[in-house]
Amino acid sequence: MTATSRAHSFNAAAAQYGANRPSYPPALFDAVEELAGRPLAGARVADVGAGTGIATAVLRERGADVIAVEPGAGMAAQFRRTLPDVPIVRGDGDALPLADASRDLITYAQSWHWTDTDRSVPEALRVLRPGGALAVWWNTTAFDVPWIAAQAERVAAHSGVTSTPQVGADDSRAARLAGLSDLDVTRRHVRWSRVVSLDTHLANITSHSAFLVLGEAGTQAFLTAERGRLRELFPDEKVEETYLVDLLVAARP
């Protein structure tokens, strides 16, 4: 299983992804505004690796002038169904189809790790205007919640892919791991949660690339066992998912 095959696996499950993946809390976008040094309202923003438009929709609600960039045909098609009035272009962070110095802010929600930072960092700097900013973030696993940590271990054992959030890393190491150590980077963590049905929770879990590449049989085996375990923990079938958003904002000189 290669990184490329995992990255492209989302296209066949775009509707599942869009319907069940979590969004992001208002406090995250407050932090983006603070660290970028400008409000989102009126900002020219490129949301790269936009997927089905989960982050794009919030950026637009905050008043940003957003263009989405998405490499996958399936994800782009779902984006157009969800946000028909938002412009979207096909492309990826390693070769942005955008003009020089044309954007105030470039965002990557859950997608920066799919890029080659030797290429995507210079591309972001090329497209950003002077004084602009690059913001990358991930909803990461709240390992301090016992049932979530136990589930993460089961997912890793079943799929053979271990989640590697860098929340535990110090700020300088996190910037280095993200390929941003040569830039002026500020980091922020935002904790939040949502309550969803058991079905939504399981659909969210299995919309991740580790499951999408397993195929139906491998996924169903996990779902059957996991549904039974979670019904014991959540007899009303209402699951509180807790996340820690790891945000890095890099300023363009």
Walk me through this protein's architecture.
The protein is an alpha/beta fold and 253 residues long. The chain has one domain (3-141, 165-193, 242-252): 3-Layer(aba) Sandwich (Rossmann fold), CATH 3.40.50. Helix content is 42%, strand content 25%. It has helices at residues 3-8, 14-20, 26-36, 54-61, 73-82, 117-127, 146-159, 171-177, 198-205, 209-212, 215-233; strands at 44-48, 65-70, 88-90, 103-109, 128-141, 184-197, 238-251. The chain has a seven-stranded mixed beta sheet with strand order 3-2-1-4-5-7-6. The radius of gyration is 18 Å and the shape is globular. It starts with a helix and ends with a strand.
Total count of helical runs of at least 4 residues:
11
Secondary structure category: alpha/beta
Fold-level CATH name: Rossmann fold
What would you call the shape? globular
Please write the CATH class name: Alpha Beta
Mean pLDDT: 90
Distance between the termini: 38 Å
Percentage of residues in helical conformation: 40-55%
Strand content of the residues, in percent? Answer: 15-25%
Short note summarizing the structure:
The chain is an alpha/beta fold. The chain has helices spanning 3-8, 14-20, 26-36, 54-61, 73-82, 117-127, 146-159, 171-177, 198-205, 209-212, 215-233, and strands at 44-48, 65-70, 88-90, 103-109, 128-141, 184-197, 238-251. α2 packs across α9.
How are the SSEs ordered, and which strands pair?
Blueprint (H helix, E strand, L loop, with lengths): L2 H6 L5 H7 L5 H11 L7 E5 L5 H8 L3 E6 L2 H10 L5 E3 L12 E7 L7 H11 E14 L4 H14 L11 H7 L6 E14 H8 L3 H4 L2 H19 L4 E14 L2
Parallel strand pairs: 1-2, 1-4, 2-3, 4-5
Antiparallel strand pairs: 5-7, 6-7
Keywords: Methyltransferase, Transferase
Organism: Streptomyces iranensis
Protein name: Methyltransferase type 11
